[in-house]
Amino acid sequence: MSTASLADARRGLRIHVADRVAFALALPAIAAAIFAGFLSIAPNRLADGRPLALWQLGALDSAIAFGLLILLFAAAFIRDETWRSKLLFVAGAGLLIAILLTAGATAYGHLDPREPARRISLGSAFWILSAVGSLACFQSLQRVSRTAKILAPLALAAAVAAIAASDALDALSLTREFHAQRATFASELARHVGLVAFAILLACLCAVPLTLAAVYRENARATIFTTLNLLQTIPSIALFGVLIAPLSFLGAQVPLANKIGIGGIGAAPAIIALVLYALLPLVRSADAGLRNVPADVRESARGMGMTPRQIFWRVDLPLALPALISGLRVATVQSIGLAVVAALIGAGGLGTFVFQGIGEYALDLVLVGTLPTIALAVSADALFQIVLANLRCRP
Amino acid sequence: MLRAHKLAAGEVESHPGANECSQVAGPRLTRETLDMWTSSHPLTRRALLAGSAALPLAPVRAEPVIVASKIDTEGALIGEMILALLEAAGIPARNRLQLGPTRILRAAILSGAIDLYPEYTGNAAFFFAMDGDPVWKDARAGYERARALDLQRSDLVWLKPAPADNSWVLAMRADFADAHRLATLDDFARWTREGGAVKLAASAEFVESRSGLPAFQETYGFSLSARQLLVLSGGNTSATIKAAADGISGVNAAMAYGTDGALAALGLRALEDTKHAQPVYAPAPVARGLIVQSYPQMAAVLAPAFQTLDVQVLRRLNEQIAIEGREARLVARTYLREHGLLA
Questions:
Q1: Which of A103, A277, A368, B120 holds its CA 20 to 30 A away from the CA of A112?
Q2: pTM for this entry
């Protein structure tokens, strides 16, 4: 037997991992399902809970969850790409929905009318499995059509939202915290979105002259970027704090400022701080986009008889547009996160729940603030990605 | 439960070295900003109105009272009570509860961004930088002083306070305290002097502030070494209480607040401050003078309910919110209804 055919034989025998990401996802998920707590049952809101692992739940529930995990693991070895991605999506989405329903139903089973303060919280295994489930779904969508890339996550999100909106999860501590805040939740969410939207709008307006100066005035460029970089290094809580003093002074000294709501606390300092932070990603990417317009393209535009104004609007701007949108994407996602801290200076928003929860040592209340923040950031990011993908596809 | 009644260590600090930042984005830019969500910003509509009708004795004021509170359990509880009582009395009110820590609330009411919030009498000592004055240790005199100072200097009205004291306390596990016969801080001091193995979990501010641990040590004659302290950064008593209850890192005593609801639930007991080492922190509604003029009935609407809020009541209600996880709004309204204070 020649050495070449021996190597061939060995290769044929070796088990081949077709999808390393799926393989890497499945192993920690299985470990978490075995060793980590899936739910935690505490006598009250403050006391420590007793962990309950996935295999300690009902036989059917744990069989389904472990079956889906094995399916996920198996998917990593399927060589056919179409089948692999289909199986991966089914396993991932199935896992996500199965653990949600299991957690909700088990929580109902542990409610005790004699102990009304009892709290059933989601444990680390739940969060690891839900992350693995979502990541498996995204991994499965790597090489599918653009329509499927948009529709499949939407369908999954709709399914999760439908479960959350039904009463299936009402026995969980997280849902109870949410219900306790429902009177103010919508307005704080709207306030959060409002803060971010307005800050981004203002930042875009401020970014236009700064970008033009940075691109077309070489001597202003260094100053602009030094200042913006410096601003970015100030910790958010410090910047919010620093704005209180001058704005309070302004509000107290200038009657008009006070009348339109500018004072040391509330929306004004929050928006200003968010604008200052958003400027760097906006200006930097716009600057890069405009500077990277190839010189020969501009040259031929001039050769065609275009005026400098026409070149800017018809050549520079369309070519730089993907970079502009990328900057907008970074600035928006960053602002959604930063706006959480604004709750500390009275601007409200989802941070209200975060800080209230930290103060009361109620981690589920913290989640009432953080989960919607994450959802907002992820949806904003996805929205901009879709816009970008459409821009790039256009001839 | 964070009782933000002291200026907690983590609060926003403005430092003077960085004022340049404010000049980057001009204030005029925010005009449209704020107009767009007028519904959520208190000042805009009011300001337009105030321009024409905010003479000192404006007759009828249709604008709602903006009720705020600190971002903590008791703030939510008392704030919800105020909202319920004002609404029942036909005074329009807007909910801005859990707005932020003490410093923010104080700035907000001084600038007119909010109209009314519950504050603790002992905090006036900090507002007016008079924390050495013994007047704050007397509930009545402290309240009168706070009322007089704020009325004169800032046109703020301190309405009738609750007969409760939410000052710092030292708490220990009830079983441990029973075994060592510790009921008061005198007992605690004696036990510590005799070499009792104390380990106290407390915030940095409590350990360092003159009216905190140093006041206790001075009054009762004991001293704790650095090794006997577990110092946490924030003013968050949930962590200290939990440490003492579970014996984390050998902790057996905790800094807490007088009306903390978590104490009883986690098997802790506050040691009695027989010599009054602490200023009295009685919660009272503080309102802008202008709003009290517009709604002169406000004082009479709130007083009967505040009169019933003693330490036991507040502790029990705080516990329902913080430990049992009931909604502050429901707890407040149920309590008021049960006591015939709300129809």
A1: A368
A2: 0.79
